[in-house]
């Protein structure tokens, strides 16, 4: 099954018109008027070419907008392809997400179709976004990542795709973002997969968790929060 066929089965790809409208609505209107200030830290760590997996913390529904603002087409000349839950692909929201290149994946038990499609996108030089925690975590629990990220990264490596994994931290001046507050996103140095297997996966999870935490702490400090 080729990439086009897999894309037909999972999503509609990125619609150029809807993509431009989404950038206008989110970056030029929503982010600009909702937040007093948006802060980007460590943007020099963002690779502008080559297969990339962005691994951000997940603290609010604004996270995806912040990621697209800091790493999307206007910055890197490529779209952020989001892996989302099946429930997020339902209804009117799903209709829009379908046209913005998002596609569903089960973080706990990802389907082979979703994994292969993801690897093919990366092989084509795309950048993918997967929230390793799986869901929004506002309670400041320690970062706990699901198996999907490392499984995808190792599968890409096994198929000869030299993907970089970029740890990302997001923070807001309020736990639940409020109008005229601050929002920050921090990129850490990318990680590369060099081994596969259970032990390598465990080591990778420890490293990515530590760097996501460090990125989030930097973002928190920039918006005036200690934790």
TrEMBL record:
Domain Phospholipid/glycerol acyltransferase: 52-173
A GO BP entry: phosphatidic acid biosynthetic process
InterPro entries referenced in this protein's UniProt entry, alphabetically: Plipid/glycerol_acylTrfase
Pfam family, one: Acyltransferase
SUPFAM superfamilies: Glycerol-3-phosphate (1)-acyltransferase (SSF69593)
Keyword Hydrolase in annotation: no
One GO MF term: 1-acylglycerol-3-phosphate O-acyltransferase activity
Highest taxon of source: Bacteria
Keywords from the named record: Acyltransferase, Transferase
Name of the protein: Phospholipid and glycerol acyltransferase
Source organism (scientific name): Prochlorococcus marinus (strain MIT 9211)
């Amino acid at each position: 099954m080729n990439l086009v066929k897999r894309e037909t089965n999972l999503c509609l790809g990125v619609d150029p018109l809807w993509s431009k409208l989404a950038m206008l609505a989110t970056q030029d209107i929503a982010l600009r008027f909702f937040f007093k200030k948006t802060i980007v830290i460590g943007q020099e760590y963002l690779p502008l070419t080559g297969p990339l997996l962005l691994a951000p913390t997940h603290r609010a529904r604004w996270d995806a907008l912040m990621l697209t603002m800091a790493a999307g087409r206007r910055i890197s000349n490529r779209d952020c392809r989001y892996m989302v839950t099946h429930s997020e692909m339902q209804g009117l929201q799903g209709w829009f997400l379908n046209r913005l290149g998002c596609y569903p994946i089960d973080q706990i038990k990802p389907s082979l179709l979703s994994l292969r499609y993801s690897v093919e996108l990366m092989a084509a030089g795309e950048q993918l976004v997967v929230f390793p925690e799986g869901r929004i975590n506002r309670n400041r629990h320690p970062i706990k990542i699901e198996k999907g990220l490392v499984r995808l990264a190792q599968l890409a490596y096994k198929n000869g795709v030299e993907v970089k994994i970029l740890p990302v931290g997001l923070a807001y001046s309020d736990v639940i973002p409020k109008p005229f507050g601050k929002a920050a996103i921090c990129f850490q140095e990318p990680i590369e997969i060099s081994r596969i297997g259970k032990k390598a996966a465990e080591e990778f999870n420890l490293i990515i968790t530590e760097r996501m935490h460090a990125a989030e702490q930097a973002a928190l400090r920039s918006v005036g929060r200690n934790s």
